[in-house]
Amino acid sequence: MDEKIANAKTKTEQAELMGIELPEDDYWGEVSSKVCGMVGGAKGGNFTKEAVESFEKKLVK
What we know:
Elements: H1 2-6, H2 11-17, H3 33-38, H4 41-60
């Protein structure tokens, strides 16, 4: 199951695979930050880290 979640193409798809009930009106403002952080949290953190590292490498060159 973890591999399926990691390979999800969108955060919405990831949330569905995790069993999180999606808001019917697509408004996530009433969903707790804890739940929102679980969706894409690690993936988003790695993306930011990789973007910063890439930018730093370009600055050095």
